[in-house]
Each structure stands twice: as C-alpha cells, then as structure tokens.
Amino acid sequence: MGEVATVLVLLLACLIALVLVLLARREAEAHRRQALADATAQKDEARARLEELQAREERLARREQGLADEHHELRRLVEGAERRAAEAEAEREAARTLRAQAERERAEAQALQAEASRRSAEADATVAQRLEALSGLSAEEARQEQLRLAVARAQSEAEAQVRRVEARARRTADDRARGVVASAVQRIAGPTSAQSVVTVLPLPAEEMKGRIIGKEGRNIRAFEALTGVNVIIDDTPDSVTLSSFDAERREVAAVALEALMADGRIHPQRIEIAYAEALAGAQDRAVAAGHDAAERAGVAHLHPDLVEVLGRLRLRTSYGQNVLAHLVECAHLAGAMAAEIGADVETARRAAFLHDIGKALTAERPGTHAALGAELAQRLGETSVVVNAIAAHHDEVPMESVEAVLVQAADACSAGRPGARREELDQYIERMDTLESLVAAHAGVRKAVAMAAGREVRVVVEPSVVDDRALPEMAGAIARHIEKDLSFPGEITVTVVRELRASATAG
Q1: Same domain, 457 and 482
Q2: Whether the Cβ atoms of residue 158 and residue 32 lie closer than 8 Å to each other
Q3: Which residue, among 165, 171, 172, 176, has the nearest Cα to 29 in the 3D structure?
Q4: Which of 200, 307, 350, 440 gives 448 a disulfide partner, CB atoms 3.0 to 4.6 angstroms apart?
Q5: Which among 421, 442, 458 is the end of a domain?
Q6: Is 0.70 surpassed by the pTM of this model?
Q7: Residue 124 neighbours by CB under 8 Å, 6+ apart
Q8: Sign of the C-alpha dihedral, residues 127, 130, 131, 136?
Q9: Residue 163 phi/psi, 5° resolution?
C-alpha cells in the first residue's frame, strides 16, 4: 500500500509540476510583454532622435530667416537712399552723385542677397551630406533601419528571458510539487472517510434492550420487517447494533429507534409511526447535513438546492468511502495546495467541495456524474472556473484553470490515501442490490429485503395477489431463481411474509 501511495504522490507531483509550468509560462508572457514595452521605449527614443534632426533643420530655417531679415534691412536702406536722392534732385550734381551711390548700394545689396542664398543652399547641402556620410543611408532609410534593429534586439532579449525562466521552472517544479503535495496531505491528516455497514446506537439504560425485543420478540421482528435492517442485541453493554448494506435504510432505522427509545413506548403500532416520521424527515436531514458539510469545508453562499443535493450524498459511498466526507476532505486539500502555489484558495476549495455533486443525480438522469454536476452548478449560478473544474476532474473536458488541476489532484489524494476506499464493500453492496432486484421481479412482491449479510431474504407480498396456499410454492420459485441466476457462497434462506390487515373507525 505504501508503494501505491508513493506512485500516487509521484503522479500528483507531475500534475503540480504541470501547474508550475503553466505559471512559469504566465511569468514568461509577462517578461515578453515587458520586452515589447522596452522595444516601444527604444522606438520612442528613435523618434526623439528624428525630432532632434527636425529641430536642427528648423534652426537652419531660422538662420535662413535671419538672412532674409538682413535682406529686408538692406532693402530698407536702399529705399532710404532713394528718398535721399529724391530730396537732392534739385541739385543735379549732388543728385547724380547720390544716384551713383544708390546704384552702387543696390548692386552691393543684390550681391549680399545672392551671397545669402548661396550660403543657405550650401548649409542645407552640407547638413544632408554629413548625415548621409555618417550613416551611408538616406534619412528615411536610417529611421527604418534603427527601428528594425531595436525591435530585433528586444525580441532576442525576450526569447532569451523566456528560455531562462522555463529552464529554471523545470529545475524546481518537481521538488516544489512534491513539497506542495506532502505539505497539504500532512496538514489534512485526519481520519479516513471510509464507511461501514453497521450503526451502533447507545442505549439510555440496559433495560431498554428488553423493550426493543418485546414480548416473544414481536417488537424486534416488526422493526426488522418494516425497516429492512437487522437489529443485533448481544452482550455489549449499553448499545444496540443496526446492520444493513443500504445506508438510507440504516439511517431511517437509526432515527426511528432513537425516537422510540426517547419516547419509551415500544410496540408494533408505535414502531410504524416512528418509521413514518423518520421517512418524512429525510429531506430535513439532507439539508442539515449539507449545511454542516459546507461549514466544515469552509464554503459559503451556496444555493439552497446545492446544499440539499450535497446532503443527499451523506448516504452515498464510493468504494466504501463516504462521498460527502470525501468532498469535505478534498476542499481542505485543494485549499492548502492553492495557498502553497499562490492560486485562488476560495475558488479551489469551492470547486473541490462541489466536484462530485453529480453522484447524487446519476440514479435519476443519464450521464456521467462530472457532466451532471457541472450542469447543475452552472444552472445554479456557479462561476465558469468552478463549472469547468467539476466537468474536468475526470478529464472528460479540457482543464481551463490552475484550480481545475488542483481539484483533480485533491480528488486523487483523498481517494488514494491508505484505508480511504475498500473495493470489497462496493462489491458486497452490489451483490445485495442484485439479490433484492432479482426477488422483487416476481409477480405479487411488494418489498424484498436482503438481511444477515445476504444469507436471508424476506419477501413481503401483496395479500390481494398472493394467497396463503401459494406462499410455499412462491418461496420455492424464488429460491430456484436465486440458485439459477445468482452466484453466492453458502445458503440463502427465503422467507415469504403475507400480512392482511383490516381497520375500521367507530364514530
């Protein structure tokens, strides 16, 4: 059994390793986004450099504007000279002199304007030649090449970072996964959730055994015939044992017997009343069990219908393991593992607590318990992460979150712990169900109950269909049917009971 547990732990470690690799990929994606952001920053830097070149061009334009201003100033001077020449027009000799001077000034101005234009063109050509000489490219080609180099460098750095993160994750994933599983199992090292086929009730007093048996055993016979449960009263002090493979019958019988012992009046009529009351209170017991399990699991705000369906699982077993106790245990395991790896603790605990809820519906509707549970959870308002974790815990659909992987791991931990499940008990219950179904198929049978670990079958028939003379023949036919169609060890005693009752009311 230790080797099996070791193998299961290794398998669970692999699952946790997968979770860690997924988280590493998330971290790598974050690094990739950071690298892209760095590339964007470098692109912005290149754009800033381009803007600097444009600023230089603007400065050259301003210099050209300065030369133009000088030209305008020269023009103003020429106009002043012309005004002076007009004023001196009366004096011809002076006017001719002034005119000649103005002509010279005009010529000089034109020369200056030509010189300014030439210098501006030379300056533009010089700047462009220097830039192209330095880069060997045109301005547009230089901008494109710089952007391409920045993007390529950012991508290379991002890919290298991703490879480093993945390598580091692979080196540490196995060890960390084993640590997470071991820590969770150690912290939730509670009693196993295996379930037996007997219920032991304490007696308020030793004399209560006599009341339960009744005069010539009539009470105990009536109780067993009505509930289908064996009542074992031995030398054990202050207790009585109820034995049945059917957990629901055993619970109803226990509730009825506790009510009878509390009342103190035990006779066939009172037994029938207590049994009817116990049957009627099944739904209330289911709701109470659902609320109690949710409180123990630490899961709040469940839909009332979910609570009731969960409570019905208190009577359901899987290979001898009580399903409701298994769900509580899985919730604690998933929450502990989620806390270890940084996942959503509340979501993991909630999904693990609800993952087997579909087992309460498999007898009513076709489909696997995972699919039925996911459909119920979705219809009652659970989140998509919880619904996917329920549907995927047996790999029927792909897992979409880390919490779904944790639910599957917690399920395997709870089921694989030594002593948690017993396959022999399920085989025994299946054999009892088969025996009862085989007997109930005969015409006229109202109820068939397998008792004494399958060594006895009590058959209650409809008195209006089967008369007293047909009882021996019917018992023989049932016995032959069992011998033919059922494989069993030892002998099985068939007891056919026909009871005819009549009642009237006096007013």
Answers
A1: yes
A2: yes
A3: 165
A4: 440
A5: 421
A6: no
A7: 60
A8: positive
A9: -65, -40
Which is it for strands 456-461 and 493-498: parallel, antiparallel or unpaired? parallel
- Phi/psi at 300 (nearest 5 deg)? -120, 170
Give the separation between CA 281 and CA 256, rounded to whole angstroms: 10
Are residues 254 and 391 both part of a single domain? Answer: no
- Which residue type, as a one-letter code, is found at position 70? E
Element of type H or E holding 494: strand 493-498
**Residue entry with tokens 């090449």:** 145
For residues 274 and 294, membership in a common domain is answered with no
Q: Would you give per-residue pLDDT tens digits along the chain (507 residues)?
A: 667 778 788 888 888 888 888 888 888 888 888 888 887 888 888 788 888 888 888 888 888 888 788 888 888 887 877 777 667 566 667 557 667 776 887 787 787 777 767 766 665 566 556 655 655 656 666 667 777 777 777 787 777 777 777 667 666 655 555 554 545 444 554 554 445 567 888 888 878 888 888 888 888 888 888 888 888 887 677 788 888 777 788 888 888 888 888 888 888 888 888 888 888 888 888 889 899 989 988 898 899 999 998 888 887 877 667 888 889 888 988 888 888 888 888 999 999 999 989 888 877 788 888 899 999 999 999 999 999 999 998 888 998 888 888 888 888 877 766 555 554 555 667 777 888 888 888 888 888 888 766 778 888 888 888 888 888 888 888 888 888 887 766 678 888 888 777 777 775
Q: How far is CA 281 from CA 140, 229, 244, in A?
A: 86, 18, 20
Q: Distance of alpha carbon 198 from its chain centroid, rounded?
A: 36
Separation CA 146–CA 136 (nearest Å): 13
Other residues' Cβ atoms within 10 Å of the Cβ of residue 489: 7
Give CA–CA dist 406/7, Å, rounded: 18
Range of the domain at 267: 199-280
Contact predicate 161/287, CB 8 Å: no
Question: What are the φ/ψ torsions at residue 242 (nearest 5 degrees)?
Answer: -105, 125
Which of helix, strand or coil describes residue 320? coil
Q: Give the whole-angstrom CA distance, residue 443 versus residue 434.
A: 17
- 504 lies in a domain? no
CATH number at residue 234: 3.30.1370.10
**Are the C-beta atoms of 345 and 421 separated by less than 8 Å?**
no
What is the H or E stretch that residue 134 is in? helix 92-135
